[in-house]
Design a protein that fits this description.
90 residues; alpha+beta; binds zinc ion
């Protein structure tokens, strides 16, 4: 039992994908552009036309912007109007 099987696991280096999958239409056509000068970023999907703009901190990367996009898309109510509570007339 003195034998140890050494497992060598090759982990492929993860590259930042140029295109992100769109939270709206599901296609990998989302491009994040960051302009460091103005500390802003523009996320756009060339498929469905989704377009958002975020302010970015210097430490944030494309993937962070993409996360903000998905957060925004998923958290925003879809066609769901906040129904006002009808005032009760006493
Ligand atoms: Zn899209």
């Amino acid at each position: 039992m003195g034998r140890k099987t050494k497992r060598v696991v090759h982990i492929p280096k993860k590259r930042l994908p140029k295109f992100f999958s769109c939270p709206k239409c599901g296609k990998e056509t989302v491009v994040v552009k960051i302009s460091r000068d103005s500390a802003r970023s523009i996320v756009g999907c060339s498929s469905c036309g989704l377009n958002e703009e975020f302010s970015v901190k210097p430490a944030q990367r494309e993937v962070d912007v993409y996360c903000m996009l998905t957060d925004k898309v998923f958290s925003s109510p879809k066609k769901k109007e906040v129904s006002k509570n009808p005032q009760k007339k006493n």
